[in-house]
TrEMBL record:
InterPro entries: HDOD, RNase_Y/CdgJ. PANTHER family: HDOD DOMAIN-CONTAINING PROTEIN, PTHR33525. SUPFAM superfamilies: HD-domain/PDEase-like. The lineage of its organism: Bacteria, Pseudomonadati, Pseudomonadota, Betaproteobacteria, Burkholderiales. This is Signal transduction protein. Pfam families: HDOD. It comes from Herminiimonas arsenicoxydans. Residues 11-203 form the HDOD domain. Coiled coil: none annotated.
Amino acid sequence: MSTELARPVNIPPRPALLIALQHEIATAEPHMKKIAHLVNRDVAIAGNLLAMANSAMFNLNRHIKTVEEAITLIGLNNCHALITRLMARRMLSHGKMMMPRFWDVSEKRSWGMMYVARQVTNVAPDLAYNFGLFCDIGIPLMMASFLDYEDTLTVANQLEHRGFIELENSRHGINHALVGAMLAEHWHADPLVVIAIKKHHSYEIMSDLAFAPAIRELIAIFCVVDQAIQQHRHAVSIEWLEGGEMATETLGLTSADIDDICEELRERFLSPNTA
């Protein structure tokens, strides 16, 4: 993939905290106190992690006071996913990449992906969360790399059908899905997540049994969550118009199930402690 994605887009290096954290997680027996110590060295990240762990999304019946408690109660993999988001937001939400609306939608998508994965699939919630984080993160990276990318977004927002990827390719020789996959790979995301990000606008993948079930389900969840996000914003989800029927079938759900999930997500989006 690295060769295929060799384009003039600046891919930020993996943060030192993430490198150290992933190194410890990869050991045969990760040491929770050591991981907590690593996280606590970054006061801002530790504080934000605790705030997220205590949010309505995890709905715990107790208040988490320490990073070590967070690791124990919400799980090491979930903590890793949350820290990855916090590091990405810190590194990418400045200058031309600030884009407040983008980051708001990205956060809702990550939380929504985690919620739906827990409710209706066998996909690990942390993988779904990371997919939600990285799937469109190529947009701010391209904004920073191409002077006319804002014009591309303006044109894309006027499209009434799928065509964003094709528009990016024609104007810039690369698209946000490939850039997002490149960053995810560079930051050592799960290979299934990397592939799903690269293919997340290729809805036919959902019916292609050559792809792993997790990849097909991640793309299906993406369509469902986008429908809920756009309903929350009183807009139309192009993703759902194009892939909704296949997503419903892939997840083994009914139209009524989808309506219930979207309603629940919209309620959660209204909570300041959720997304």
